[in-house]
Each structure stands twice: as structure tokens, then as C-alpha cells.
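Example with several molecule types.
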Amino acid sequence: MPREYISLRAVTRIYQRAHSQLAALRDVSLSIGEGEFVGVTGHSGAGKSTLLNLIGGLDRPSGGSVVVGGTDLGALDEDALAVYRRQTVGFVFQNASLVPALTVLENVMLPLVPLPDAEADKLRRVEDALAEANIEHRASHLPGELSGGEQQRAAVARAMVNDPRLILADEPTGELDAENAGRILALLERLNRQGRTVIIASHDRRTIAGTRRVLHLREGTLVGDGGRTAEPRPEHGDTGGTQR
Amino acid sequence: MGMLFRYAWKSFWRRRTRSTMVVAGVTLSVALLVAVLTVTQSVENAIASALDAAGADIVVQKRVDACPFRLVKLPKDLATIDMAVVERLEQHEGVAQASGVLELWAFHFADTGGGGGLDLPFTGDKRSDAADDAAESGPMAGGQGVPMVMGEGGEMKSLQPTVVAGIDPSRRTIGPVRLARREGGADGPEKCCAVTEGRYLSADDDYHALITVQYAQARGIEVGDLLPLGPHHEFEVVGLVDISGTARIAGAEAFIPLASAQEMFGEGEVVDTIFVSLTSRRASAAVEQYIRELIGEGASITTETNVEAGTAALAAVTRNTLLAVSAFVLLFAMLALARNAIDGVAQRVNEVGVMKAIGWSNSEVGRLFAAEAACAALIGGLLGSVLGGVVGWTWGRFADLELPASLNYFPPCSTTEAPLGLPLSTTPSPTVFILGVAAALVIGTVAGLAAARRAARLAPTEALRRI
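Resulting C-alpha cells for the full complex:
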């Protein structure tokens, strides 16, 4: 059993609406070891993205605690959370979400821009990440000139350029064909083999097929945690949060 | 920080359509401001130069109804002021110098042949012009115009006017053709900036005259010639002075010692124009009040401010209106820029979300948007300043601006024209240029801060939800 890296204790996330509340996560407790390759599955609205946002420090729980690498994220202010994201987390989103006005190289450089490091050092790290994602030949192109698969590879390069210990991928293959999806998953697997903790959230079981542990969410509740064989049988009503 | 600004620049530069619109708005508003400032400043400088040319801050005259015609008379409606007034004024607190000038119209008989065989250009329509002017000056015996008078033998004689200013030769830093600069600048007394040939008047001179280059050329006069002024006097021309290039208050065609002018005029120790320089501009109001007490009814006080207001081409009200319009346009540009920057944040909300997700702090995201707005403002400010400068320069090239004629009456039949033209500086002012860019940067900063605030307040999860 690897050393515990991520710990969620009784985490709840409730979104306030005008006349109601939406529970995106309810009383979720789990532990993820360092270097694990974890899949999070569940239907749309099950709370997958919310879980990743909480672990990634983009959101704060309404209740409970999220501890990553020994740091209680609830104790961090906004600036400290930004530093945590910059130093610890690499995000990959469903669409590549590259800045259209910047080249691939500049997009991959983005996480490094606020850092005080030498520019040459930053450039070397960007080139390494581009090479790792096999997209260095497109470095000077604008995102609009790239295919969907190339854009997503650039996004993975951006996620790894800071050498984060944790990679969070939210539906990373959602807009890709099978061939490109395979490339992205292989890339994420390689990052995991390098020792990084990788968590992939997807409603598509093929996407998480390569992970070694699967968390299953339904209506904001963790209903399964284990290997794929332990995955619970899908049930009806697994389509959204609970209206209170 | 440098890299952040580079990214801001790239982001600005590669969004050509949006950036062009923003820059165009800033450019036009700044251009309007700079053009107005350039024009008003050039007018103010030109007006100030007219007073500076005389080394004075205040010009004092007294106006009455037009006096009757005489062969040596005061111009138009000017009245005499006793020399004692000049002396008392000079003793007053806040007054650095006061110098009296007696400006006269001196008529001599054109067909007498006096003045060393002068060629008197007094024919044709000029005759009727002179008659009109004489009629303005006052009726003559028989109600006839002045230019023609009947000689003893019954023949008609024509009259030639010369605008004469009696000046104090010892006052070299103040007066219509002062010799030296007030603050002892580069031009010392020995390096007169105006005398082109011969010499300036000295304290020993009596029937000696300094005449303008333009008058000398028109009349064919050279240094050493005798110049008839009035019916009974001739003056030796000792020097030529160039008074072109700027408007002159109480400018004349011939400058003679004040005592000689007073003798010609025959009303004792009087002047009709007093040039006053102040120790400090702050003393202006008090000195003006004192002058009104001294002169009494009819006092006419000219300062930079009221000359400007009286200059028809750009009255103060016009200037203030233009400046108000410029300020309004600039404010509108700022609001439009702010709105555009905020819209930019709304359209790039996913970009903001990604930036925050990859570790940019709220302030860093805010700075990026602020820097982008600053890029637009800086470029717009530079372009607007150049455009406004060109507009102002073009206006200056074609504007025809003159001092009010009351500050320098020349008879219509005079040999030369009154030096009333105000030469406008066509050189763009660096100060105005910098002001234009600064104004653009201010509105850009405000707009950028509005966008930065909006971007900083955007929750990353809210932004990412829209991806």
C-alpha cells in the first residue's frame, strides 16, 4: 500500500441556488496513495468534476477536509491555493482550453510565467514537456492550427511543465477519436509511471480502463472504491445531484 | 513581470480586430485633446509673445472719444496720460518697471519734397482711405477729409502719415522695441536682437529716429537720411530695426526719443501708452487696481488674459468649451475602454479559469488584463498624440490670428501694415504630447483595473464550468 497522499474526510460540497441547494458531493471519505493511478467514474452530474476541483484546490468543500501531501487545503487562502495549484497540480480538461492568441509553446509556458525563474530555464522545461507530449514540432503554431488530439497533447504538456506530483484529468478524451484518446491515455499512464499521482475522471469506462483503481460516484456519494471488478452495477437515477 | 507584460502584448497583438477598435477609440479621443491643447497653447504662446516682445506684463492706455484731426495727433481714441502717472506707478509695490511711450500719427506734406527726396506713395485709392480715416479722427474745417489740404496758393497738398513712437532710450528692457531681454538672458545690450543696421537710440539723441526695416524698404530710406515727421520736423535715421516675426503692442514705423515726441505733440510731458513689468504675476490684480485709481475713467488695461479673451479667433469661452468637450470625449473613451475590457474578460472566461487552474493568482490574472488595457492605451495615446499634433500643426499653418487692432492703431493709409499678426508656433509641444499619452494611460489603467477586478472575482470553478 503506497503512502497516503490525498485524504478526504467527510467531504460535502453544496451549491447554493436561488431557491434550493444542490449537493454535488455528500460525505465523501477516501484516501489515495502517492503514485496511484485512479479513475473516477459516474454519470454526468455524479460529482466527478467537483471531486477533482476540491482535490485540485479550485474549490472549497462545504464540509469536511481535503488534505493533499499533508496540506489541509481548507487552511489555505486564495493566494496560497494558487501556489499549491502551481507547484503541485497539473490540470487536463475535456477540451484543451488553450489560449487561442498564444502559440503552443507560449501556452505550455503559461504556468511558468509568474515564476521568478530564469527565462532560459523556463524554456528548457517547456521544450522538455513538449517533447514528452510529442508535440514539439507544433510549438510555434497557434491552437487553431492544431488537430483536437494535438491540442490535447499540448494541454497535457502544459499540465506537466511544472513537474507536478498530481495530475488531474477531467474527461481528457471526451472530444477525441479513439486513436487520439489512446495517445492521451498512454501519455497519462507514462506520467503515472514516472511516479506522479494521476486521477482521471470520466463517464466513459474505456477512458479509465487503464487505471488501477476506480472510484464510482453516484449522486455525489462514493458508492464504489476498488478495482474494476469491484465496480458497482449502474443503477437508474444516476443523472444528477440531489435537490434538497 | 517582464514575461507577463510580453504575454499581455502578444494577447493584445493577436486579437487584431478587438485591439484595433480599442486603439482607434483611444486614438481619436486623445487626438482631440492634444489638438485642442496644441491650438490653445500656440495661441496663448503667440499672445504671450506680443507682451514678451515689449518686456511687459501689463499695458496701460486711456481711451476717450476720437480726437479731432491734427497734423500730429494721437492714434484713434487714445488719450494722453501724464508722465507723473508713470513715475508713481514705478514706485508702486509689485511693479518692477514702468515705461511710458507716446505713440503718434505724424502727417507731413507729401509734395513738399522734404525728407531727402522721399518717394511718397500717396496716390489713388490711398487718398480716399486716408480721407476716411481722417473723418474717423475728427472733422476738419469745412468738413473735408484730411489727406488733401489747400496751400497758400490755392493748390491741393496731400498728407503722408507716419506712425511714430516716442520711447525712452535709456529703458532698454521694456518698450515696443526693447533692446535687451528682461532676465539678462543670452542677448545682452550689445547684441540687439532687432537692430539690423545702424544703431539703437541713445540718451543723447534728440531728432534721431530708428525706423523699421519694412518702412525703410517701402520708402527707400537708408541710415543717415532725413525723415520728415509732422509738418515741421525732420529726424536723422540712425538705425533700422526689424519688428517682424511677432505682434507688437504700440509698434510704430519710426521710433524717436520720447522728449522729441512730446515736443512734436506739444502737450507737455505726456504719454499715451505705459508698459509695466511686474516683480511677480501675483501682484497683477493689485497693480491693476492701482492703475485704475490713477487713470480713472477710460483706463484700458491689457494683460495676457484679456488679450486672449479679446482675440476673436479663439476666445476664452471657445477654448474652455473645446477643453470641456475633449474631457467629455476622453471620459467616454475611458468608459468604452472599461466596458470593452470587461467584455473581454467575459468572452475569455474559460481562459481566466484555466489560468487560475494552472496556478495564476487573482492578482496575476488581474495584472495580465490590466497590462493588455495598458498596451491599447499606450498605442492609442501615442497615435492620438501624433494625430492631434498634426491637426494642431495644420491649424497653426493656416490660422490667421491677430492682436486686437486697438492695441496698435495704424491709419489705413500708412506705409506699412500694423504689426498685429500673431505668428503661431507650429512645433508640437513635448509637454502636450506627454500629456496626451499620460491621459491615455490613465484611462487605460482605469479600464484595465475594471477588467482586472472582474477577472480576479471570477471563481475558477465558475469559469471552468463554461469550458
